[in-house]
Amino acid sequence: MSPSPSPLLNLELKGFKVYEKNFTLQETEQTRLAAQLFSRRDYYKVLLMESKCLIHYAHQSLELDGQYLFFTNPHIPYSLELRTDRLRAHACLFTEEFVKAADRSESLHQSPLFRIGSPPLFKLPAQQAEYVRSIFHKMLAEQQGDYPFKGDLIRTYVQLLIHEALHLQPVDTFFQPKNAATRLTSLFLELLERLFPIELPTQQLPLKTPQEFADRLAVQVNHLNKAVKQVTGKPTSAHIAGRILDEAKALLQHTDWSVASIAACLGFEYPTYFNNFFKKHTGHTPLSLRRKA
């Protein structure tokens, strides 16, 4: 059986998508399909995983062999490496807006299951796994149906998954892989790169300091700094400053935005702070670079 097209294509249109995967992979398909389904996304996800795999979450790893319920948020990169040629999984993906349509006052990232730093993985006994699987099947049926209030019903099913997990103890046997520093550095650099490019003058850089990156990756800032320095030879702050500088040069040369607008986009409270930063690293003011260009 060949894999179907990516189930993520219309997520942005509906704010929700549920899918089931259950087939044997050809050896050449395993890496490609794993990357397609399980790479970091800008959506919340609840995943019922029933295939043997290795999960990497932030700078931690855990080998799964059984039935697990896994919760992810958009702020922590993760990946899954299949350790078998049989893929069996159910997943639902949704946006904050989809869930907020139920007038919940609490933001999803404050939920115990999606909050940064919360353990996101739960091992399911066979009977409970069957019940969780039945919830996914009900969501699949509603997704295909024409019931006018199916959005409300699906939100209820998502809440059932959340409450089912809250009854369980999270898995606490994450281990630090031997190359933990390399993995954490890779996650940091990936997260840094995902902040760019800046495409609109109203856009603002959400992360600017090592502490903010560490919070997003759910690690201590000292641990992040040590790993990045060990692997790259440069401190975390140097990577952030260098990428901001590259973006500043691009915006100065290829847009007509004011220097003040560019400074605000890149997280500088005042244009003078941006001018001083730029001159310190290039020897030129932003305007002089623009005139040269």
TrEMBL record:
Query: Which domain of life does the UniProt lineage start with?
Result: Bacteria
Source organism of this protein record: Hymenobacter setariae
PANTHER family per the UniProt record, alphabetical: ARAC-FAMILY TRANSCRIPTIONAL REGULATOR (PTHR43280), TRANSCRIPTIONAL REGULATORY PROTEIN (PTHR43280:SF32)
Q: Which SUPFAM superfamilies match?
A: Homeodomain-like (SSF46689)
Please verify whether the record's keywords include Calcium. no
What are the UniProt keywords, alphabetically? DNA-binding, Transcription, Transcription regulation
Q: Which InterPro entries match?
A: Homeodomain-like_sf, HTH_AraC
Ranges where the HTH araC/xylS-type domain occurs: 211-292
Record keywords: Aminoacyl-tRNA synthetase included?
A: no
What protein name applies here?
Answer: AraC family transcriptional regulator
- Source taxonomy: Bacteria, Pseudomonadati, Bacteroidota, Cytophagia, Cytophagales
Gene Ontology terms, MF aspect: DNA-binding transcription factor activity; sequence-specific DNA binding
